[in-house]
Amino acid sequence: MADIVRFDKADVLDRVLSDPNVQGPFMSFCATIAASAGTMVPLSLNSQEKVFAAIVTGHELGFSPMQACRSIYVVNGNVELKAAAMEALLERHGIKRKIMEWSTNRCAIEMTRGDRVETFDYTMEEAVQAGDARNTKDGKPGMYEKRPKDMLYARCLSRGARKIAADVLTGIYVEGELPSEPGPDALKTLSAVGVVADAPAGSVDAEFQKLTDAK
């Protein structure tokens, strides 16, 4: 698994939080990225505040801005990580994982950190009891019906990671763990802010680099 690449302008977001001269341009940058929701970044990052939360959280975890936008969701004021991103963080900190069971009814993962070895599980019965395995608001099948094994794996991974690596995740949830928000009534288009709709995946990092290099 590829290691996480830390963005080389490590002090920029520290300046954003302390320097008013940097905050304005950075929030404008976040607004520009939010306007591309559904094209250059995921649909869920549809406000400058969500983009800001994703990038700052990603910075704390060691992600570049584009990695953060690809890997982090903002739901009801909290952040969720994609399961693959959570796995990458665990790998980076030397936490090994071994799947002991993985079916549509139960997932069990053994995690090892140093001398500590523990096995964690999550079952479909728990998902039903918690209200996770439910249809969407419009009655369509939910993710636990469409991708039961993947959802059980993600929740099992999150449960174990928060127990054995609380210092790494600091309370962050895994994708699908929080109740989802309704979609926006309408999204701004990239053309409204003069950004090409088919911008390449790395363009967020490129624009962020320009911002950090600005005098």
Identify the notable features of this structure and list them briefly.
45% helix; flat; 215 residues; 2 domains; 15% strand; 3-stranded antiparallel sheet; alpha+beta; 3-stranded mixed sheet; disordered N terminus; 10 helices
Can you write the helix and strand succession as a string?
HHHHEEHEEEHHHHEH
Strand order of the largest sheet: 1-2-6
Q: What's the number of helices? A: 10
Gap between N and C termini: 37 Å
Mass-distribution shape: flat
Major beta sheet summary: 3 strands, mixed
Radius of gyration: 19 Å
Helix content: 40-55%
| Number of beta strands | 6
Mean pLDDT across residues: 79
Structural class: alpha+beta
Content of β-strand: 15-25%
Number of domains: 2
- Low-confidence stretches are 1-8, 181-203
Notes on the structure:
- By secondary structure, the protein is α+β, with helices and mostly antiparallel strands.
- The chain folds into two domains: 12-76 and 189-213, no CATH class; 83-174, no CATH class.
- It contains ten helices and six strands, in the order ααααββαβββααααβα.
- The protein has helices at 12-18, 20-34, 48-61, 65-71, 83-92, 124-130, 143-146, 148-164, 166-169, 203-213, and strands at 72-75, 78-81, 96-102, 106-113, 116-123, 173-174.
- Strand 1 (72-75) and strand 2 (78-81) form a beta hairpin.
- Helix 1 packs across helix 2, helix 2 (20-34) crosses helix 3 and helix 5 (83-92) runs parallel beside helix 8 (148-164).
- The model is unreliable at 1-8 and 181-203 (pLDDT under 50).
